[in-house]
Amino acid sequence: MKKILVWWNKLDPSMKALILIGIICIIGIILRWDAVVGGARKGFNYYGGDAH
């Protein structure tokens, strides 16, 4: 844990923000997995010729 804290403290503030935004996005994708997969399926079906 100390190594992670040392690494975190050495990062630029902009890099810390990017990492935090990435973590938040990953959590959001996990929480809304059904909607993400449903949207991807709908998109592939549209381009596959099944536009219903």
Q: What are the segments in which pLDDT stays under 50 over at least 5 consecutive residues?
A: none
The biggest beta sheet reads: none
Helix content: over 70%
The total of helices stands at: 3
What structural class should be given to the helix and strand makeup?
mainly alpha
Whole-number radius of gyration?
18 Å
Q: How many domain regions?
A: 1
Characterise this structure.
The chain is mainly α and 52 residues long. It has one domain. Helix content is 83%, strand content 0%. The chain is elongated, with a radius of gyration of 18 Å. The model has no long low-confidence stretch (mean pLDDT 90).
Outline the secondary-structure elements.
Blueprint: H1 2-10, H2 13-31, H3 33-47
Task: Looking at this protein, list some descriptive labels.
mainly alpha, 52 residues, 83% helix, single chain
Write a concise synopsis of the structure shown.
With 52 residues, this protein is mainly α. Helix content is 83%, strand content 0%.
